[in-house]
Write a structure and sequence with these properties.
Strands 1-2 form a two-stranded parallel sheet. The N and C termini lie far apart (41 Å). The radius of gyration is 19 Å and the shape is globular. Helices cover 54% and strands 7% of the residues. It is built from 7 helices and 2 strands; from the N terminus they run αβαβααααα. The longest helix is centred in the last third of the chain and has 29 residues. The protein is mainly alpha-helical.
Length: 148
Amino acid sequence: MAQATLLTLSQAGMEPARDDTGAAQAIVATLDSGYYSEAAVSALETLGFDPYMATGRQRHHEPETPALQEPANAKARMTAKVQTPTGKALYARRKVIVEPVFGQIKEARGFRRFLLRGLANIRGEWRLVCLTHHLLKIWRYGCVLSAA
């Protein structure tokens, strides 16, 4: 997915941001806990990403424990990174960018599982779900504009 992202950015003519020295800045990537592994973190960093991955379920209103020492392993380091103020702010953006779309498709549209089998059929079914989701948003936006 990271390679596909880089390819899409390249095709769109977008280059990574550069700092004052001219070095390319890492692309921030926030990922669910299901994507965490040491190999995934390493691969993303090698490709020029700055990953923020949940390493497990995040509990609400959990008391913060101050970090007294350097985390011992990669998983602990990633957990500490996501718990920094910057990490919390970046990871919280998922709640308003990525997650609402899936919530709307699952709850409002009632799409909970695929009806077809086979990768090609599932891709087609997912594209149809996404298309109807976007058409509905465009229709609603048009209705609001025409009422104004």
